[in-house]
Design a protein that fits this description.
789 residues, alpha/beta, Isoleucyl-tRNA Synthetase, domain 2, Ubiquitin-like (UB roll), seven-stranded mixed sheet, four-stranded parallel sheet, binds ligand ANZ
Length: 789
């Protein structure tokens, strides 16, 4: 038997593919149907490729090769999401410019990806930190600005004290920075915001027409957090001021016995003069500003508040005068920042009312409001002319009665994109001497990231200290003009990279119209589920906004989405540097070869499940490849079993790849190899067919064996084999024998057997289950027979 020398084979073929430009496609070839298969591009970290990348990229590589073999022109590109904090933090520590580290790291990634045999064409890749890419990020930003989809405001925003930058809501996890895990505080910082909230409804509705995992869709819907309810106005007594509240329960208006404003409510300042206990109020407001929204809204937290002495509002339904409080459980950023409190029917209000001894008026029947809030819907009582209506009936009626309006509120906030950091795309904005912002005209793009900066973060943007940037600005625009010194959130760069791949070298457009129309939207996208709220939501928003602007003519970027599971260590623990359990693809490829690593990753579990990295398992796939090499010695003629086996295999593997069920496809190949070994015979042509099927999974060894069998062209250019359906059927099938729907036995019968014979054979097996009279027999040929007794 030939020895399986994976190193020699893999190096030989990788070199050959490089020389032959084997991964190059003609993007203008419209003679074949297009297929755009996208991987989430990696951040080129210093640690190199990790197992999670390997899993997703291998899966798509298999799919890509399979689609090519089926006659598609497949675009399966990659690139680098290269701006971001780690390179900058490294620069702070060592003084090495992020440009340098990024260059080294991307080269390393490229080498590692090539060593896995992924069919990427690196001459067609993108790098978000290159001026020829971020020129277009800036160009798109300018279009967003012209169309009022981006604006500047000063607001309380999430601030990471350790990274010294603003973070978007999506980048805060349980009150901590998603990057460095340090606590996030609130800080008033001016910054640029994308108007993603203009698209809240569309972003929910659009999900219904794309083929994404249900849980991912659900998470996006929850993140957008649409609440349907009403806005109602309360008059401030003895003044012409009104306070608007948002409520999901206008049906409970008659039970509103007090009102609560968020500590940051705008009206506070205006009412100041009328509030005798202002100093107490002010102290509470200051204390509330120190807390994050998370801290303020946890359910277990004791409810606190301060009454605004001297002012009251009028309940518009009962006309009663009710007190006002400020309390930090009401958030300034949600709804109108003010609520009507209904202690009988809202738990938080109930606790608060008990504490401050406020009246509790039952207006919905169904609970016992002496004991606690009854929060469900029900029939109205104590509600004037609305008594007897159900909550659902009353909502709109009461809203109309008091002149309010039905409306919706969303949890989603506009996306803050200004970062006070260095290693990102400069925001292409300059300020005139009066301080008004203007976009940098297109002719000056790329608006280059200056290099004369100090990386040490101070909380002020590093670009603020660049002499070159300030001089450049004054030189172009005139004296007194100043540059914007913040950089863009890296998620802006990754919101549109899939639009660049079809045309990455275009210098006059981000992508030509022709290529956009031909290639987009993306047909299949594979990546981690952790991007649900960030990248996957932002990219959808970008696409929709660009459609409104007239730059794109579709509204959803990714028609179909799959998530890969995580790669865990053999004990099921997440791999991490701190735990010392990281296994790198590089080390594994060195020991076992790319083909065995690829096969193991795909065989160990379905793509969407977690994979336990077990070295014994990879030894198994390695042995399988050795057996494949050994098949050569059986070359002769097919036995009948082998002939049937190959037709079944072609059918099964094709169907499994289409369904992203790579694990069962591989197990079917393993079974086939065992059959050949038992039968000790296979025709040369059949072996060629098998190698053709193996090729997407184990591209190197397949190429080697293909050559050994005497083929001249690459196995990866050969078409996918076709099968004869009549040969995929077994002569004998196993069918289930059931009594009243419960499986009681199995029997082997000829394929498509008639009911009569099957029935009598089944009855023999069922003796002890069939004592009663058989009322009915249901026979599904080749599947089951069921006796109803
Ligand atoms: C009166 C009421 C009566 C309410 C009742 C609920 C039950 P979701 O579903 O999360 O949208 N609310 C409104 N704005 C708020 C804010 N800025 N901060 C904190 N709470 C706020 O919840 C909407 C409900 O949360 C609103 O309906 C309001 O309380 C409260 F029996 O109004 B409700």
């Amino acid at each position: 038997m030939r020895k399986y020398d994976h190193k020699r084979i893999e190096q030989k073929w990788q070199k050959k593919w490089r020389e032959d430009n084997a991964n190059k496609i003609d993007k203008d070839d419209v003679s074949k149907p297009k297929f755009y298969l996208l991987d989430m591009f990696p951040y080129p970290s210093g640690e190199g490729l990790h197992m999670g990348h390997t899993e997703a990229y291998t899966a798509n590589d298999i799919y890509s090769r399979y689609k090519k073999a089926n006659g598609f022109n497949v675009l399966h590109p990659t690139g680098f999401d290269a701006f971001g904090l780690p390179a900058e933090n490294y620069a702070i520590k060592t003084g090495v410019h992020p440009k340098e580290t990024t260059k080294q790291n991307t080269e390393n990634f490229e080498k590692q990806l090539n060593s896995l045999g992924i069919d990427y064409d690196f001459s067609e890749s993108v790098n978000t930190s290159h001026p020829d890419y971020y020129k277009w990020t800036q160009w798109l930003f300018a279009r967003f600005f012209e169309n009022n989809f981006v604006y500047k405001k000063t607001e309380m925003v999430n601030w990471c004290n350790s990274c010294k930058t603003v973070l978007a809501n999506e980048q805060v996890e349980n009150g901590a920075c998603e990057r460095c895990k340090n606590e996030v505080v609130l800080k008033e910082v001016p910054g640029w915001f994308f108007k993603i909230t203009d698209f809240s409804d569309e972003l929910i509705e659009g999900l219904s027409k794309i083929d994404w995992p249900e849980h991912t869709k659900k998470n996006q819907i929850n993140w957008i957090g649409k609440s349907e309810g009403a806005e109602l106005e309360f008059d401030v007594k003895g003044s012409d001021k009104k306070i608007k509240v948002f409520t999901t329960r206008p049906d409970t208006l008659y039970g509103a016995t007090y009102m609560v404003l968020a500590p940051e409510h705008m009206l506070l300042d205006e009412l100041k003069a009328q509030i005798p206990n202002w100093s107490e109020v002010e102290a509470y407001v200051i204390a509330a500003k120190q807390k994050t929204e998370m801290e303020r809204t946890v359910e277990e937290k004791e409810k606190t508040g301060v009454r605004l002495e001297g002012i009251t509002v009028i309940n518009p339904a009962t006309k009663e005068e009710i007190p006002i409080f400020i309390a930090d459980y009401v958030l300034g950023s949600y709804g109108t920042g003010a609520i009507m409190a209904v202690p009988a029917h809202d738990e938080r209000d109930f606790v608060f009312a008990k504490k401050y001894d406020l009246p509790i008026h039952e207006v919905i029947l169904g609970g016992d409001v002496a004991k606690g809030a009854y929060v469900d819907d029900g029939k109205l009582v104590n509600s004037g002319e609305f008594d007897g209506l159900t909550s659902i009936e009353a909502k709109q009626k009461i809203t109309e009665f008091v002149g309010g309006k039905m409306t919706s509120t969303y949890r989603l906030r506009d996306w803050s994109v200004s970062r006070q950091r260095y290693w990102g795309a400069p925001i292409p904005i300059v300020y005139d001497p009066e301080g008004n912002p203007h976009t940098v005209p297109d002719e000056y793009l790329p608006w280059l990231l200056p290099e004369d900066v100090d990386f040490i973060p101070t909380g002020e943007s590093p670009l603020a200290k660049s002499k070159e940037l300030h001089e450049r600005t004054e030189k172009i625009f005139g004296k007194g003009w100043k540059p914007e010194v913040d950089t863009l959130d890296t998620f802006v760069c990754s919101s549109w990279y899939y639009l660049r791949y079809p045309d990455p070298h275009n210098e006059s457009e981000f992508c030509s119209k022709k290529r956009l129309e031909h290639w987009l939207p993306v047909d299949v996208y594979v990546g981690g589920a952790e991007h649900t709220y960030l990248h996957l939501l932002y990219a959808r928003f970008f696409t929709r906004a660009l459609q409104k602007i007239g730059i794109l003519d579709f509204d959803e970027p990714f028609l179909k989405l799959h998530h890969q599971g995580m790669v865990l260590d053999v004990n099921g623990v997440k791999m991490s540097k701190s735990k010392g359990n990281v296994v790198t693809p590089e080390a594994m490829v060195n020991r076992f070869g790319a083909d065995a690593v690829r096969l193991y990753m795909m065989f160990a579990a379905p793509l969407s499940d977690d994979v336990l990295w077990d070295e014994n398992g990879i030894v198994g796939t390695y042995r399988f490849l050795e057996k494949v090499i050994g098949l050569e010695k059986y070359v002769g003629a097919d036995t009948e079993t082998v002939e049937k086996g190959i037709h079944k295999l072609i059918q099964k593997v094709g169907a499994d790849i289409e369904a992203q069920k790579y694990n069962t496809a591989i197990s079917a190949m393993m079974i086939f190899v065992n059959i050949v070994r038992e039968e000790k015979g296979i025709a040369k042509e059949t072996l060629s067919t098998f190698i053709r099927i193996l090729a997407p999974f184990a591209p190197h060894i397949a190429e080697e064996l293909w050559e050994m069998l005497g083929h001249k062209n690459s196995v990866h250019t050969a078409p996918w084999p076709s099968y004869d359906i009549s040969k995929t059927k077994d002569d004998i099938v196993t069918i289930a024998v059931q009594v009243n729907g419960k499986v009681r036995a199995e029997i082997n019968v000829p394929i498509d057997a008639l009911q009569e014979g099957v029935e009598s054979e089944a009855k023999e097996k069922l003796e002890k289950w069939l004592d009663g009279e058989v009322k009915k027999v249901v026979y599904v040929p080749n599947r089951l027979i069921n006796f109803v007794v």
